[in-house]
Specification:
- It is built from six helices and five strands, in the order βαβαβαβαβαα.
- It has 164 residues and is an alpha/beta fold.
- A five-stranded parallel sheet has the order 3-2-1-4-5, with helices on both faces.
- Helix 2 links the parallel strand 2 and strand 3.
- Helix 1 packs across helix 2.
- The chain is globular, with a radius of gyration of 15 Å.
- The N and C termini lie far apart (45 Å).
C-alpha cells in the first residue's frame, strides 16, 4: 500500500487544496492530510477547527476516488510526520514559481534527513492556482464573495469567524 502525506496549515481549506487532494489520490492508495499546528503562522482557525474542515471536505473525495483519506494533525518536522504515518511520498502543491524556491529548499533538507521518502509536486488546475488561504481570509474580512474559492461549509465558518 502506497501512503502519501499532503501537509499544510489549511487555514482554511480551499478548492485549490481539494483539487490537490483529488490529484494526490491518483498516486497513492492512502492519503494522509497532515494539518500542521504551525504556531508561527498564527492561524485564524484552531487546530481542531481546521482538522474538522479538512475532514468534512474529504469524505466525498475519498468515496469518489476509492482511496482512504486520513486527517492527521502534527507539530513535528515534516519528515518525521511522514515517517510516523508510513508515507513513502510527500505531496506538495505549487501555485506559482515563487512557491518553488521554498519548496526546493525543503526537499533538499528532507532528503538529507531521509532519502527514502520522495517529494512530488502537483499543480492545482489553472482555475484554482490563484487561490490562497490568506487572500480568502482577507476577502471574507472585507465582506467579499468567497463562494468561488472555498466549499460552502468553509465559507460559513469563515463568515462566522469575522462576525465575532
Amino acid at each position: 500500500m502506497r501512503t502519501g502525506l499532503y501537509p499544510g496549515t489549511f487555514d482554511p481549506v480551499t478548492h485549490g487544496h481539494l483539487d490537490i487532494f483529488r490529484r494526490a489520490c491518483t498516486l497513492v492508495d492512502r492519503l494522509v492530510i497532515g494539518v500542521a499546528i504551525n504556531r508561527d503562522k498564527g492561524p485564524l482557525f484552531s487546530l481542531e477547527e481546521r482538522v474538522e474542515m479538512v475532514d468534512s471536505t474529504c469524505g466525498a473525495i475519498a468515496r469518489e476516488m476509492g482511496v482512504e483519506i486520513v486527517v492527521h494533525p502534527f507539530e513535528n518536522l515534516l519528515i518525521h510526520c511522514a515517517q510516523d504515518v508510513g508515507a513513502t511520498v510527500i505531496i506538495r502543491g505549487l501555485r506559482a514559481v515563487s512557491d518553488f524556491e521554498y519548496e526546493f529548499q525543503m526537499v533538499g533538507m528532507n532528503r538529507a534527513m531521509n532519502d527514502e521518502i520522495e517529494t512530488v509536486f502537483l499543480m492545482a488546475d489553472a482555475e484554482y492556482q490563484s487561490i490562497a488561504s490568506k487572500l480568502v481570509k482577507e476577502i471574507t474580512r472585507l465582506d467579499g464573495d468567497i463562494t468561488k474559492f472555498v466549499p460552502p461549509e468553509v465559507a460559513t465558518a469563515l463568515k462566522a469567524k469575522y462576525k465575532r
